[in-house]
Amino acid sequence: EEGEDVQLIPIVKLCWSTFLIYWKWFLLSVIICLGLGWLYQQRQSRVYQRQTVMLIEDAEPSGMSGVGGRKGRSNMSTLLELNGISVGNNLKNEIFILTSHRLMERVVDSLKLDVDYTTEENLHDVTLYRERPFEVEFQKPTDEMLQFSVSILDANTCLLANFVKRGESIPGEKKVRVGEVVSTPVGALRIVKNAAYKEFPTEQEIKVTRLPKKIAANIYQARVSATEYDKESSLIVISCSDMSSARAEDILNEVFNAYKRDVVDNKNRVAQSTARFIDSRIALIGSELGEVENKLADFKQRNRLVNLQTDAQLFAQESSEARRRSIELETQLSVAQFLADHLRSTTNKNDVIPAVSGLSGAGFDAQISEYNNMMLKRNQLAANSSESSPAINEYDVKLASLRSSIIASLQGHVNSMKIELREARAHEARLSGRVGNVPEQEKYGMDIQRQQALKEALYTYLLNKREEVALQLAINEANVRLVEPPLGSPYPISPRKSIIMAIALLLGLLIPSAVLWLKALFDVTVTGRRDVEKHTTVPIVGEVPRWDGNKGEQALVTQCSPDEPVVEAFRLLRYGLNFMKRTAKVLVTTSTTPDQGKSFISRNLAVVFAMAGKRVLLIDADIRKRTQSAMFGKTDGLTTYLAAEEGEVDLQDLIVADAVSQGVDFLPAGLLPPNPSELLMSHRFEEMVEMLRDMYDYVIIDTTPVVAVADASLVARVADMTLYVVRVG
């Protein structure tokens, strides 16, 4: 706004004028702050950042559901969400796993990040990762922080010092030979040369810090972050900030590899559980099949039979279809009962369901697959938190509900299969009844053969499933891949030198500005004309600048050039007095406290009036201090006249003609009486002033400060105008 611009211009001018006055202090402050800023950023360790992008190929992107996502969500998940139960987001779950403490412990253990090597370079610490000259091999694990420094003395000797254990310094030094196991205050260790160094560097002190693996995992976990690339894809951006760019790259690569191994392990858990179940069933069915075969062999040997089918050719032709149907139903019923028994067992409630259903028309594969996926997520989350967490309890409720649903459906299917089996057996029995001439031994043998065929079919089925599981275990590829390798700028992201130096420059300008502002804020002295105008309503008649040419008490404007600013200031003061009150002849000068310049003003004002051709009398009414009398007067003066009786002393005899300057007479203060205030209150003082009005054009009375004594108020009663002198500062 226009009004704001008008107000800002004086402020800008004031700031600029202040800067010009104190520019040396501003310059010194800027130089010091810039130096401190440079020193600060030199002391800060350089931090580099690397990023990599990972793709989860079957993950569901954020905000996508159903057919819109990369992989459709299950019917059970959709049903749970319709009932107000949140099932979470797959991509967010993977992001949590990527930055989990469990995964970071594997990274720390793989890269040996629990031991750090640093040295000082250009006032800041530098991490020695791949380029370190030696490795420190600790002989025992530790659960506390250890620290010491290593100074390389020569190619085979190092000096260990500055030991720190449990946060406390341990005095002492120890020389060790490279490759030897030695006992130190921080435990037994061995220093091994790095083969990448052709020459063992000397005169270099390296600080070695060893952390417990859990604490090291916490530190590096805070340096690694994972975020979604965007809401429409299943890409994850993994970032790592570290003092070493090479270590940041290795951490990102190892995080990806550890995550990939974790995914493969989770996939293999289902296959391993299925393999254990199949092996147990193969052993059981194999023993049962052996018993049936032995029973058939004994039956044939006992009844001297070679081929039962030859003797029952007609029966076989008529009942083959019924027998095949019975065997098929019994196979499916056995598998269903085995699976039902496995689900009812409480010992494996946290295991996945073996994928061996093979139940034709049952439709349990989708439910079992959904149950296994949910159980894997539940177990994976339990590995990173406690069993009593709300998320685990929520998964347990869902799994229990789904397990009950599968058991109920499976039981219904078993009951249906039993009914069908009874009908098939009844049909087979009816066919058997038609053969009245078949010997009883042949019927018994056919029953044994039927049991043998059933066991063989079940045994063959289990062998096929075991091969499928073995093939699944042999495939160790995960559904993740690295889209971009770790990339980043070769320049550190911290400290930001330009920002630090800009802040230092700003502080260099703000500190003196704040000091000057505080100084002005707490300054209660008069700083200029505006202070007087702001706090009073009396008119200002003139301003007298500082007079650097002559600082003595007897300084007069007649002693300098007529064109000096101080002379012109007194001329303006004279003009202002005439303009304000032309008839004023008696002037009194006073001030608040001593040393404000009232005597200087009164003396030089009298001289300026005399320079205009006026007859002027200067009276020293400051009876107590008598500054003017000490310069121009004599012993007798004002007090002599006031203390004398009428007609006893002639006033003309007390006045010193041209004492101050040509045309300026002077009436000294006189001797200091015991009662100066009473003398000034006497009527003789008023009579004297009236007499002097006729003798002079101007009578200027220099009196005491108003705060010190009451003399100034007494003298002011005879004045036409009072000049109140205020000194800046």
Provide a descriptive summary of the structure in words.
By secondary structure, the chain is of the alpha+beta class. Helices cover 52% and strands 16% of the residues. It is built from 22 helices and 20 strands. The strands form 4 sheets. Strands 2, 3, 5, 6, 7, 8 and 11 form a 7-stranded antiparallel beta sheet that branches. A 6-stranded mixed beta sheet has the order 17-18-16-19-15-20, sandwiched between helices. Strands 12-13-1-14 form a 4-stranded antiparallel beta sheet. A hairpin with a 2-residue loop joins strand 6 and strand 7. Helix 2 runs antiparallel to helix 13, helix 7 runs antiparallel to helix 12 (440-474) and helix 15 packs across helix 16. The radius of gyration is 55 Å and the shape is elongated. Mean pLDDT is 82; it is low at 1-6 and 64-88.
List keywords for this structure.
7-stranded antiparallel beta sheet, 729 residues, disordered N terminus, 22 helices, alpha+beta, 20 strands, 6-stranded mixed beta sheet
Write the layout of secondary structure elements.
Elements: H1 2-21, H2 23-43, E1 48-56, H3 75-82, H4 90-98, H5 101-111, E2 115-121, E3 124-127, E4 134-138, E5 146-154, E6 157-165, E7 168-170, E8 174-177, E9 181-184, E10 187-193, E11 205-210, H6 213-223, E12 224-228, E13 235-242, H7 245-303, H8 308-311, H9 313-344, H10 365-384, H11 390-433, H12 440-474, E14 480-487, H13 497-521, H14 529-535, H15 565-580, E15 586-591, H16 598-611, E16 616-620, H17 627-632, H18 638-643, H19 651-654, E17 656-661, E18 664-667, H20 676-681, H21 683-695, E19 698-702, H22 711-715, E20 721-725
